[in-house]
Amino acid sequence: MGYSIATPIKSQKAKDKMFAFLNEHFRRWDEIVAIYGKENGNDYSPDDGHSDPTDDLSYDHGKLRIGFNYGPIDELSRHYYYMILRWMALKVGKKRKWKDLPASVHYIVYDGYEAWPVLVRGEIDPPEKFKWAVGDKLGYKYPRQDMFIKIFVDMVGGKKNYQKLIKDEIKRLDKLWREQ
Q1: Which of 2, 50, 115, 126 has its CB 3.0 to 4.6 Å from that of 70, i.e. a possible disulfide?
Q2: What's the pTM value of the predicted model, to 2 decimals?
Q3: Cβ atoms of residues 3 and 85 within 8 Å
């Protein structure tokens, strides 16, 4: 069984620009963890099962989308890819109106049909039912806490280091995006 997660893109021009950018600068989670592990004496290297960014999504057939196909993976890998998509949504994504939100917001789509809002802290004061979707200005939000995250977070140096690893990668991409 597999899954797809994607960012709906606002135009073909924006999609082409993001694809070119990702082809040059995107790093998969297992590559990032391998670099981090070498620097910190940790040999954790997930086989994360994700594809590189694609518009040929297994469960999402929208025309203007970039995302990832994946199978069963650990929570850290999943969280990383979801955060990349949230960042992409804020850069080139479409917006849509949501019931109970005062304005249209960016979003990502799970398996081609389940839209998830990408909210930025301080831009909208969401009702309680949308607080789970609030992140920082780069789209980063803390992962849900469960047993799998705790196990894998411990393997890569603890919660703080794990969050820093993902945030640093998104900051790297954002800096490169702004410089182009």
Answers
A1: 50
A2: 0.86
A3: no
Alpha helices, DSSP H, located in 93-158? 147-155
Q: Which two tokens stand for residue 29?
A: 């989670």
How far is CA 175 from each of CA 51, 82, 87, 97, rounded to the nearest angstrom? 24, 19, 12, 29
Report CA-CA distances (Å) from 93 to 39, 59, 104, 107: 34, 19, 12, 7
Domain count, the chain: 1
Half-sphere exposure of 108 (CA within 13 A, CB side): 24
Residues sharing a CB contact under 8 Å with residue 100, sequence separation 6 or more, in sequence order: 126, 127, 129, 130
Angle at 134 between CA 24 and CA 155, to 5 degrees: 65
Instruction: Please report the pLDDT score of residue 111 as a whole number.
Output: 87
Given this model, what pLDDT does residue 66 score? 93
Domain that holds residue 126: 3-179
CA-based torsion, 53, 55, 57, 62: positive or negative: positive
H or E element: which one contains 134? strand 134-135
pLDDT at 43: 53
Question: Which of 45-49, 83-87, 90-94, 120-124 is predicted with the least confidence, judged by mean pLDDT?
Answer: 45-49
